[in-house]
Amino acid sequence: MAVSKHTFHALIIDDEPDLLELLDLTLMRMGIQVSRAGSVAEALNALSNQRFDLCLTDMRLPDGEGLQIVQAIAEQGWDVPVAVITAYGSTENAVAALKAGAFDYLSKPVSLEQLRTLVKSALNLEGARVKVIKGGEVSKGLLGDSPAIQQVRQLIDKVARSLAPVYISGESGSGKERAARMIHEQGPRSDKPFIAVNCGAIPENLMESEFFGYRKGAFTGANDDRDGFFHAAQGGTLFLDEVADLPLAMQVKLLRVIQEKKVRKLGNTQEEGVDVRIICATHQNLADCVEAGRFRQDLYYRLNVIALRMPALRDMRDDIETITLRVLERLASASGMHQPRLDKAALKALVHYDFPGNVRELENILERALALCDGEQILEQDLQLSPAVSAEVAPVSAGDKWPLQDYLDRVEKEAILEALQRTRFNRTAAAKLLGITFRAMRYRMERLGLNDDVQ
Ligand SMILES: Nc1ncnc2c1ncn2[C@@H]1O[C@H](COP(=O)(O)OP(=O)(O)OP(=O)(O)O)[C@@H](O)[C@H]1O
């Protein structure tokens, strides 16, 4: 599937055949042309002879470090975004690479979802913040037979018929967005658009124009009229993911639109009527956010008309085997592969694993295992389940508590690094774990020298 008429060209630099294969395959599936280099020397040679749209390098290479490539790109002024792949837990390397000019890093084992997100941001591809499903497209249902997921299915059937706002809670990766799509698809608006917006990923200064749209000339750079999310979802459903991340000022504006069913584009004097069903979701406890003064109570009441709670995968252990086999079947057939068997020990490891990232994490684990296994059988080692992190992070030492600011910075830094490690460097998930917004996370990483250039 090509992502654009222009074919993007990426250079991947690694000497591990397995990882190279995995990166190559994933990028190719995204329609990106790939060249490979196995050493610093080969990479510098390729970069000086050819233009690439993206460069992805391992940190450890036979003749040096990936960092040298990042530095060379910065020194030569080559216009190519570069990201590094670091060993599990080696955050110092990641920080050094970011300081030297890398735009992002991935830590091993590489999560394919993070890889795709990183590639999309680097190439400025659409779909990083807003996803649009045109009317009539059908996504898949929810897997599992545990009582909790059965209840969810029944509630979805019921609420699909009404147009009342729905508030979906549940951990990251537990299927909140999928449930929202099902409500849309099973309802009377299924032939109209479903617009999913990640509220935590939209820069605060762009929020109003993104939500409400603008008229040509409304501000510098507004060269054309543009519709916002409300217009785009007209007649259909607007899904506000991570709604707790909306700044208070935006919450007021959103409440007004929901109450009055009217939107005024920036630079417009007239209001226009909008007819949009609102579904929202967050992994946070919205009632607690209200209590803490971070979320407006009036908006909370407007949104929380019907509440739907998605169960965590570890609370559906009896379903893990079935979900695993169904996901494997889908992944194998999508890539035209024969479906490998799942070794008994591998299945046992999955059933006992905690899945902090829920079904999404299971999908990533299986996608990677498919690429790493011998084609016949998936073994426990192909799953590369994350080791427990607690033992690996050194506690802050009890002494040295002054100057107080330095001490607090160290504590904060360690908490952020631990959250990043636990989530395999998924910053959205890490922010969730820390209980702060994506924006706050970006700000803190910047302040602490854990630079982060990705929107
Ligand atoms: N019960 C389920 N059956 C099948 N697939 C599921 C189920 N739950 C989640 N998934 C899959 O897991 C992935 C993540 O789901 P989804 O995006 O809906 O989660 P989410 O709760 O919205 O995550 P986040 O909080 O990070 O936005 C998707 O690929 C989705 O299809």
UniProtKB/TrEMBL annotation:
Entry-linked InterPro entries: AAA+_ATPase, AAA_lid_NorR, CheY-like_superfamily, Homeodomain-like_sf, HTH_Fis, P-loop_NTPase, Sig_transdc_resp-reg_receiver, Sigma_54_int
MF (Gene Ontology): ATP binding; sequence-specific DNA binding
Domain of life assignment: Bacteria
Annotated Pfam families: AAA_lid_14, HTH_8, Response_reg, Sigma54_activat
Residue span, Response regulatory domain: 9-123
Protein name in the entry: Sigma-54-dependent Fis family transcriptional regulator
4-aspartylphosphate sites (modified residues): 58
Source species: Leeia aquatica
PANTHER family according to UniProt: RESPONSE REGULATOR PROTEIN PILR, TRANSCRIPTIONAL REGULATORY PROTEIN
Segments forming domain Sigma-54 factor interaction: 142-371
Gene3D superfamilies (UniProt xref): 1.10.8.60, 3.40.50.2300, Homeodomain-like, P-loop containing nucleotide triphosphate hydrolases
Protein's UniProt keywords contain Phosphoprotein: yes
GO terms classed as biological process: phosphorelay signal transduction system; regulation of DNA-templated transcription
Keyword annotations: ATP-binding, DNA-binding, Nucleotide-binding, Phosphoprotein, Transcription, Transcription regulation
